[in-house]
Amino acid sequence: MQNSQPLNWGTMNLAPAQLSDHLQRGLRSLYTLHGDEPLLVQEFADALRAAARERGYTERTVHTVAGAHFDWSEVLASGGSLSLFADKQIVEIRIPSGKPGKDGSLALQQIAERAQGDDSTLTLVLLPRLDSMTTKGAWFGALESFGTTVKFDAIDRRNLPQWIAQRLQQQGQRVAQGEEGQRTLQFFADRVEGNLLAAHQEIQKLGLLYPTGPGASAELGFDQVENAVLNVARYDVFKLSEAVLGGHALRVQRMLDGLQSEGESEVLVHWALSEDIRSLKRVKDALGAGRPMPMALRENRVWGVKEKLFERVLPQMGETTLANLLHAAHKVDGIVKGLKQPDWPADGWQALQRLAGMVCSACQPSAVARGVRQPLGGARG
Fold first, then answer.
1. What is the band of 162 on the pLDDT scale with cuts at 50, 70, 90?
2. 278 contacts: CB under 8 Å, gap ≥ 6
3. For residue 315, what is the enclosing H or E element?
């Protein structure tokens, strides 16, 4: 394991630059992440997993602690057992309630002590926001003493414009200098205040609508940001997503026609459709691994209206159907970027009609109930 003198962080809020510096210096064997910003916790955990994979941690087990009678023996055993095909592993312990219980408290103390000097197992403990009483418990004290504990506080409203600017910079974009740029960032922050996930999605949207590269400007004007963020007032790709998952075929076709006539970006529409397909696949995989539906949805950031739609369609949606949808989304990705695909329309909007139709057919109540698919939009393709 490439591990120089480990950093002694303790409980703190980490900026991306600090995370990058730490990963360059090596990984520790135990991390505890807790806070009330799920987006930041998830991104940090993703970065740790990626760094671990680069260092040969090829196996991963996930334990979600639920209920008063959770069996901790399997968690304790997983830390000391490796398959014949891996010599390093990631053990992930998720405690959504933040309350491990008496047995869990003892187990976590044992896990924390065992982590010292163990370079074959990387243990991640993921927790929600904890009150001061909980952080004074023996189990949390052990995690803090023997590992790296990272707290994720909510982004303060005063710091949100700067956070948005940093995220734009990460994808090669920026706002104008001076007063105009500050006005743009303040407008953006006002629209997404209190919801980092919404901010994250809007920033991704700007990256798709105004890609950087040769001949393209990286600077975003106020009008560009305003038009993108306020797009929900018109036909909206995210409302389209709800219609597709609801199996409303005629509404989907009307919305796609409306988006096209309003000059919406084909790339953005494809992104919205393909994100839903990938989310369906991830949640389906989580269900197959034994995760309860509510937990699988929360872990994959599926909330609100989509949560109910996923609950309806996923139990009867087969692996083959999802694989076909992923394959189709990959083909349409090429089409909207100007590539030709055999047996698919060359026109981007016609290809999007067909892709939306495939998803819509798989999600229609009658198709879900009978386990069959009814083609939609084929005539337009």
1. very high
2. 326, 329
3. none
Query: What percentage of the chain has pLDDT greater than the value 90?
Result: 36
Which amino acid is residue 264, in one-letter code? Answer: E
**CATH node for 237-380:** 1.20.272.10
Pair of tokens at residue 230: 């306020």
By CB atoms closer than 10 A (0-12, 13-18, 19+), residue 361 is buried
Here the tokens at position 162 are: 């700067």
Query: What does the pLDDT look like over 361-381, one tens digit per residue?
Result: 999 865 544 444 433 343 333
Contact call for residues 61 and 291 (beta carbons, < 8 A)? no
Nearest 5°: the CA angle 187, 193, 197 is: 110
What is the C-alpha separation between 205 and 208, in angstroms, rounded?
Answer: 5
CA distance 184 to 225: 7
What is the token pair recorded at 61? 């087990």
Residue that has been written with the tokens 């609508």 in this structure: 209
Domain with CATH 3.40.50.300 in the chain: 16-152
Pull the structure tokens for residue 245: 């998952």
SS3 state at 269: helix
Q: Which two tokens stand for residue 205?
A: 């949207």
Give start-end residues of each CATH 1.10.8.60 domain in the chain: 157-233
Whether residue 310 is predicted with pLDDT greater than 80 in this model: the reply is yes
When mean pLDDT is compared across 236-240, 264-268, 295-299, the lowest value belongs to: 236-240
For domain 16-152, say whether CATH 2.60.40.770 is its number: no
Residues 66-94 have pLDDT tens digits of 877 888 998 988 866 655 555 789 999 99
List beta partners, residue 220.
175
Q: What are phi and psi of 30, to 5 degrees?
A: -145, 125
Angle at 335 between CA 331 and CA 340, to 5 degrees: 90
Geometric angle at alpha carbon 130, from 129 and 134, rounded to 5°:
170
Q: Architecture of domain 157-233 in CATH?
A: Orthogonal Bundle (1.10)
